[in-house]
Amino acid sequence: MKKAKKVSFYQYVPLLFLLLTSWQVSAKINVIASFSIIGDMAKNIGQDRITLRTIVGPNGDAHVYEPSPADAIAMAKADVILINGLQFEGFIKRLIAASETSAPVTETTKDAHIIRDPAGGHYHFYEGKAVFHAAPFDPHAWQSIANAKIYVKNIADAFCAADRSGCTFYQDNARAYTSKLNALQQKIKTTMAAIPEDKRTVVVGHNAFRYFEEDYGIHFLSPQGISTEAEASAADVAGILKEIKRNKASAVFAENISNPRLVAQIAAEAGLSVAGTLYSDALSDPAGPASTYLAMMEHNVTTLTTAVNNGKPRR
Ligand SMILES: [Zn+2]
Ligand SMILES: [Zn+2]
């Protein structure tokens, strides 16, 4: 009988090596994005090398979001955590602490051009009740495409740090996405420049568009909380009505994250109509008109120009 050939451990080494390298190629990094806009950018840059979880999803309001135990579990397993910072995500510090995650937290607004808010914050209206959101640096920095390009760079850097072998891939994707941002920025500048001077003031429910205002020269008015009574305060509405008159505002817009009742009331009392919905702090769901950051910016510009140019989109 033939003696069975003895198999040495070393014969397995090439196989083991092959298994390890293929595992490395398929291992994705776990990425947490705090809200939908950063999530969309992360998806563009990370594509199939990342497993992405977005905490505050489409049409969600990051201000009032209550994290779930599943969020904490995901956070604990994360390799990369991407947040906006500037006190936008009220829940994030508690969630990071509770999850005991060891992943680095990237503030995507790092090195962006940040506007200091002279009022130290802005108002939200929940069921007519004014809530002051203290944020000395305006957190809505993504409303400037120039800033979005910095978000993209920060996201690519975070991915490179977590996954060195994928760095070229992330940087290539960031470059491709940035060229789309450049093209859109140019298009928006041209479109907005065509709006007549006397139609450049509009009204929104909360002050989320100051970066957009600074980049494209549209003036946004929003109600300021005067009273904190449970019912919609007549004083809050009276204040904005005076501003609308003084500035000859041309249109009022609802926002996807907030109840449209207050802006509807303002529009009715000002003799204006609600001319559409702007996306401020969250994307729409996939079937909606603002399911990506690029689509959101384009939708907002089309909605604005259509309203102030008497129903005709100006090209
Ligand atoms: Zn806010
Ligand atoms: Zn906001």
Q: What helical percentage do the residues reach?
A: 40-55%
Mean pLDDT: 90
The span between the termini is 88 Å
Strand percentage lies at 15-25%
Name of the level-1 CATH class of the largest domain: Alpha Beta
Number of strands: 10
Going by CATH, what is the homologous superfamily of the largest domain?
Nitrogenase molybdenum iron protein domain
Essential attributes:
single chain; 315 residues; alpha/beta; Rossmann fold; 4-stranded parallel β-sheet; 10 helices; 10 strands; 42% helix; elongated; binds zinc ion
Question: How would you characterize this protein structure?
Answer:
With 315 residues, the protein is an alpha/beta fold. The protein folds into 2 domains: 137 residues, 3-Layer(aba) Sandwich (Rossmann fold), CATH 3.40.50.1980; 124 residues, Rossmann fold, CATH 3.40.50.1980. Helices cover 42% and strands 16% of the residues. It contains 10 helices and 10 strands. It has a 4-stranded parallel β-sheet, sandwiched between helices. The protein has a 4-stranded parallel β-sheet with strand order 8-7-9-10, with helices on both faces. A hairpin with a 2-residue loop joins β5 and β6. α2 crosses α5. The longest helix has 27 residues. The relative contact order is 0.12. The C terminus is likely disordered. The structure holds zinc ion (2 copies).
